[in-house]
Amino acid sequence: MNIIYLSDFNCIYSYIGLNRIKNTVFELDLDVEWEMKSFELLPGANNISAMERFASDNKLSIDEAKKEIEEIESIAANEGLNVNYKDLIINSSKDAHRLAKYVQNRHPESAQELIFKIFESNFIKNENIADHDVLINIAASCGLNESAIAEMLKKDSLEIEVELDIEEAVSYGITRIPYYIIEYKGERLTIPGVFEKKDFETAFKDLISGEIQNKSYIGRIDFNLI
Known about the structure:
Blueprint lengths: L1 E6 L4 H16 L5 E6 L9 E2 H8 L4 H17 L10 E2 L3 H13 L1 H16 L8 H10 L4 H9 L4 H13 L7 E6 L2 E6 L4 H13 L9 E2 L6
Parallel strand pairs: 1-2
Antiparallel strand pairs: 1-5, 3-4, 5-6, 6-7
């Protein structure tokens, strides 16, 4: 089974959704190959308050935004993710995406570990994921060569590939993330958005059994987003 997912390291729903789908895969003991596609929500972001951004995007007061963010934090905490979303300062995720692509290409066995650690760095530790030292330390914690990572980050390596991922997704009408594409025995199905864990589980079981044909919450796609 292949799981292609469109995410951004500044998207709390991407973090929660990926954690849910990872746990579902583990509990069902599925053999999965993962691929993250870049979908940078805030290109060029620099020291943006997540609280203020959330309030602005949802036309809320700061107090209303704080309450909703605390509810999101509670949902995440119930799943073992002790996020601190309300104090997050958003910075560009482009270099984090470049790093993820580099590791997927060169060290695929370490890619998922690295991706989760970038999410953790941002949402739990509230580190600046645009800072190359932060990214280098994350890569080193995954057993990757610090010098090679530092050299890659200094250059514009894979920047075009990151941008092409977004352009390709938008060209197929995908404008929101997270977004999951599941490939299994010739079937290619999509899961738009964050499902509850039990719904992810049902979706995987139905796909494997062939019962997915009768379901409406997952849609077929005919394009080739690979």
